[in-house]
Specification:
single chain, 992 residues, mainly alpha, 5-stranded parallel sheet, 5% strand
Length: 992
């Protein structure tokens, strides 16, 4: 806010940050009022004179007006410059939010939009804020004039209209007791205005005071007839007839929705979008049908109930709530049609199902009825319940997507964002406790995975035990180690269950109750849908003992608040339901075992041991029944609590060998893909003996480097978790190989620090395998990570740890490599002179050895590091002498990454020595090479150097362009410090 305000909704108001700026002279107030009322348009001098002198300007008015304007500017102080003179007249400059009538218009528009979307609470608050801008009669201290008087009449009318709209919203919210006295005042002040009178009649009737309402109608009619000579209009008559309708034989409109939940949080945009669809259809249009889907406990029922309660006034002929029974106890369509007919007051109907359906559609015709069909099994179950046309409308909730319903608006509810989950917990436990432990409350919200039912269970336990801290509850869940079991135990006070699968028929209201709630799903006791959970062999059979265990667990879960809603979709999975020979229950269990927040279809195919077509069928069906979430194009994820449920079922139903085989297929797929990508990232790296462990990807997964890079970026989180999974399973070969083929990909993406833990595990795996060369390579790579993290002493020591492993394997070149890397790290630690001495010795040592591909690669590394050490220790000319040999050797070996660095360093050295013309071609070459291998980190540094070289030659535009590109790269890589430094360089260049 600027701290500046202008006001006309009351006495004229001017304020700046230092306080009020009173305008004492009436003529000056008239001028300012005229300018404010017409802003931003200019007011012609003649029109302004008419306003000031009430259509009778004196002779010489132009000069006097100019004098008044000058005095007005002085009275306004710093704001005086806002009063401008133009060829077309005079204006006052206003900024957004400074003039009260502009603020009023904005607030009223927002209130009207909220009303249209059914968000009546927001509408009421916003209307109230708009009316609070009135400080009295508009322009109360401004002399009369044509514009002033017209403006007063206009703004009086706007205030009255806004009050009427506010009172109408308040009545829709059921606040009749508070509104009736205010409406009586409004009717008394405006005896010939019918809208307030109609609202008063409706309020009295809604408050149970029908006799008073009828008497009030007669009083208002008498005033209109006797004093104005007119009969009441349509609006007032309609209100009167609505009261009389309560005496006819038509049954009262059913209001069968359950109560709204006071702690409902979030979903604002989705509620608004659905409200617009449900209320926007014209009579005769297809009836709006909204299908709300999501996993159990996500709050589908509470979403539908909140929406229905908000739209109560939009459906005056009734709201019918029908429990459909869910996946385990689905109710028959004919039974449901009868229930809806009875709810609408029809007591006799035919036995024939088709005739009964026709009767329902006829009953719904031309009636504004909202049907809420809760927990649908499939499209066939609800087709007979759908109205033929608007104005009736339908909300369906289901764990399954219902693609068979034409013209539906699908709404998929996901987990609440952490901030909204925290807000929901705060509503349950109270603001005081929420504010006392914000960090613990956030951890609790994250433990619940944004699932409303889990949040309510935890919140209810804290609300019941006021003396318990949030932190202690979080500690309990963390100690249990199983969030699903720990939260579920809070719902009934039981100890956390350690067993696996279970089920429930509870609904999706997220209330944490299993019976007695109006928002609960159906109570039908029909047989449950069975599932072929399998034994891990993929045969789709279960042993009798396993079946008995599962039945016991199912019975136990029916008494639980959280596991039951999550369980229902799993228990309904059928073998082959996806249209292929796929055991869906087994697929659900095994997919939960793999790591990564998101997984792809090829990864799923590897886990399941099927082709991608079958994997697609299985995964798509699991998405349809809300057991998986589509996380990105062609990528999928588990809700953490559902994943925990699936893993529990895997332990109970699949053998340890079957689980290990599934994870092993995934880690092998990760290793093969990562190795194939690594060969494209660094094609000239010599292949080493240990790489024979790596399975070849069949068929070759990547057509070229760009495709490999895209795959690597998408799968990187899973690749890291695959390394951990292999180590946990005792697959030492994969645990040792995978971090090594990931190193180059993570280095060129500036994410090398993420490999620290996988490399530690890789060292242990190599030692257990009795592979000293691999152990040395792992330690060498781990030391590189330490160096990248600035932990130089650890890096130098770790390079030293690699030496004994290489020596025991008889690898002289590798020993030299470890020592070279240690010397390079010495240079990185700020000791370039010492590093140069070490590197000279290493180069001489390498020159004395027989030539091999690895030796040639090491010579490139040594020369590159030596040129940098010589440059940094004050011997640039000696470094320049070495560059021809370095560039030729790197070109021969095909070491593109180091060749790019060498060209860049040579360019920077030229630029530092005042040879900018020689520097730019070198840096351009480096930039081309970095881009050819997708090295974003190197590309950023090269652009930085290019900008400096261009700046030294006075090429300011090119310098700014290079620095801007570099800054965008470092921002994308999360290098905020580098980005800030570049921003300073750009700003400095702009200032020149």
């Amino acid at each position: 806010m600027s701290g500046t305000r202008f006001g006309v909704l009351g006495p004229l108001l001017v304020e700046d940050p230092s306080g009020p700026r009173p305008v004492a002279a009436p003529r000056q107030r008239a001028i300012l009022a005229a300018l404010l009322l017409t802003a931003p348009r200019a007011v012609a001098a003649a029109d302004l004179a008419d306003q000031v002198w009430n259509l009778e300007p004196p002779a010489g008015a132009a000069g006097t007006l100019h004098s008044y304007l000058s005095r007005l500017r002085g009275a306004l102080g710093p704001l005086g410059d806002r009063v401008r003179t133009h060829s077309s007249g005079y204006t006052v400059e206003l900024h957004a939010g400074e003039l009260d009538i502009d603020v009023f218009r904005d607030l009223r528009d927002r209130a009207r939009t909220a009303t249209a979307h059914g968000d009546l609470e927001t509408a009421s608050a916003t209307y109230t804020s708009a009316l609070a801008l009135w400080r009295g009669a508009p322009l109360a201290d401004v002399p009369g004039g044509p514009w002033r008087d017209d403006a007063v009449r206009y703004w009086d009318e706007q205030e009255l209209l806004t009050r009427e709209e506010l009172f109408e919203v308040e009545l829709r919210l059921g606040r009749t007791t508070a509104v009736i006295p205010q409406l009586r005042v409004l009717v008394g002040e405006n005896p010939f205005r019918e809208r307030p009178a109609a609202l008063l009649l409706g309020a009295l009737a809604a408050d149970g005071r029908r006799a008073e309402a009828l008497a009030e109608y007669q009083r208002v009619r008498r005033v209109l007839v006797e004093e104005a000579g007119i009969e009441p209009g349509e609006q007032l008559k309609a209100a009167f007839l609505e009261i009389l309708r309560e005496d006819d034989d038509r049954p009262a409109a059913p209001r069968l929705l359950p109560a709204d939940l006071p702690d409902f949080t979030g979903r604002t945009d989705q509620l608004a979008a659905v409200a617009e669809v449900l209320t926007g259809a014209e009579p005769g249009d297809p009836a709006p049908v909204v299908v709300v889907t999501g996993p159990g406990g996500i709050g589908k029922t509470s979403f539908a109930v909140r929406l229905g309660q908000r739209l109560r006034a939009e459906f005056p002929d009734g709201q019918v709530f029908v429990r459909l029974g869910g996946l385990r106890a689905p109710r028959r369509p004919a039974e449901l049609v009868s229930e809806v007919l009875r709810a609408l007051g029809v007591t006799e109907f035919p036995g024939d199902a088709d005739k009964r359906t026709a009767l329902l559609r006829n009953t719904l015709a031309d009636r504004r009825v909202l049907l809420v069909l809760d927990d649908a099994t499939d499209s066939a179950q609800i087709r007979r319940l759908l109205p033929a046309s608007a104005p009736a409308a339908v909300i369906v909730t289901s764990r399954r997507r219902l693609p068979g319903l034409a013209g539906q608006l699908p709404v998929e509810l996901g987990r609440l964002p952490t901030d909204q989950a925290v807000a929901m917990l705060g509503r349950i436990i109270g603001d005081d406790r929420a504010e006392a432990e914000p960090a613990a409350l956030r951890r609790l919200a994250e433990a619940c995975g944004g699932l409303p039912i889990a949040l309510r269970i935890c919140g209810a336990r804290l609300a019941q035990r006021r003396g318990r801290s949030v932190a202690s509850l979080v500690a309990r869940l963390e100690a249990v180690g199983q969030r699903l079991a720990g939260i579920d135990a809070l719902g009934d006070g039981a100890q956390p269950a350690r067993s696996g699968p279970s089920s429930s028929t509870s609904s999706d209201s997220g209330t944490g109750t299993s019976s007695g709630s109006g928002a609960e799903a159906g109570s039908g006791s029909g047989p449950s849908a069975s599932t072929s959970s399998g034994s891990g062999t993929g045969t789709g059979t279960e042993q009798p003992v396993a079946e008995a265990k599962r039945a016991t667990a199912v019975a136990a879960a029916e008494r639980t608040a959280l596991r039951g809603p999550l369980e229902e979709s799993y228990l309904a999975l059928n073998y082959g339901a996806a249209g292929r020979d796929v055991d869906l229950a087994r697929a659900f269990r095994l997919l939960s075992l793999i790591g990564g927040e998101r997984f792809s279809l090829p990864a799923a195919a590897a886990v399941l041991g099927v082709d991608e077509f079958d994997a697609d069928s299985a995964v798509e069906h699991l998405v349809q029944v809300s057991l998986l979430e589509p996380a990105a194009p062609e990528r999928f994820a588990f809700h953490p609590l559902i994943q925990e449920l699936a893993r529990g079922h895997a332990v109970a139903s699949d053998s340890g060998a079957a689980r290990d085989e599934a994870v092993g297929r995934w880690t092998s797929w990760c290793l093969a893909g990562a190795a194939a990508a690594d060969r494209l990232f660094d094609p000239n790296r010599p292949r080493l003996a240990w790489e024979a462990w790596i399975p070849d990807a069949d068929p070759a997964p990547f057509a070229g480097l760009p495709e490999a890079g895209d795959w690597f970026d998408r799968e990187s989180a899973g690749l890291l978790e695959a390394a951990a999974a292999a180590a946990a399973q005792g697959d030492h070969a994969t645990a040792a190989a995978l971090p090594l083929v990931l190193l180059h990909g993570f280095r060129i993406r500036g994410r090398v620090e993420e490999l620290e833990e996988p490399l530690r595990a890789g060292v242990e795996a190599a030692i257990k395998l009795g592979e000293p060369e691999v152990a040395g390579v792992q330690l060498n790579s781990l030391a590189i990570v330490y160096g990248a993290l600035g932990r130089f002493d650890e890096a130098i020591a770790t390079f030293g740890e690699a030496v004994p492993h290489y020596e025991s394997a008889g690898l002289v070149e590798r020993v030299a490599q470890a020592r070279i890397n240690a010397a390079i790290t010495v240079a990185q630690s700020g000791r370039p002179g010492e590093a140069a001495e070490r590197l000279r010795d290493s180069l001489a040592e390498l020159d004395a050895l027989p030539a091999t591909p690895l030796l040639s690669s090491l010579q490139v590394s040594v020369m590159l590091a030596l040129t940098e050490a010589l440059r940094d220790s004050g011997h640039p000319e000696e470094a320049l002498e070495l560059y021809p040999r370095l560039l030729a050797a790197a070109e021969t070996v095909g070491d593109t990454p180091r060749l790019a660095i060498a060209w860049g360093n040579l360019g920077k050295l030229h630029a530092k020595n005042g040879r900018g013309e020689e520097a730019i071609p070198c840096i351009d070459k480096a930039l081309e090479l970095h881009r050819s291998i997708g090295n974003r980190d190197g590309e950023g540094y090269a652009l930085w150097a290019l900008g400096e070289a261009c700046a030294s030659l006075g090429q300011g535009d090119r310098a700014r362009g290079a620095w801007s590109e570099a800054r965008e790269i470092f921002l994308a890589l999360g290098r905020q410090g580098y980005a800030a430094d570049l921003a300073e360089l750009i700003a400095g260049a702009d200032a020149v």
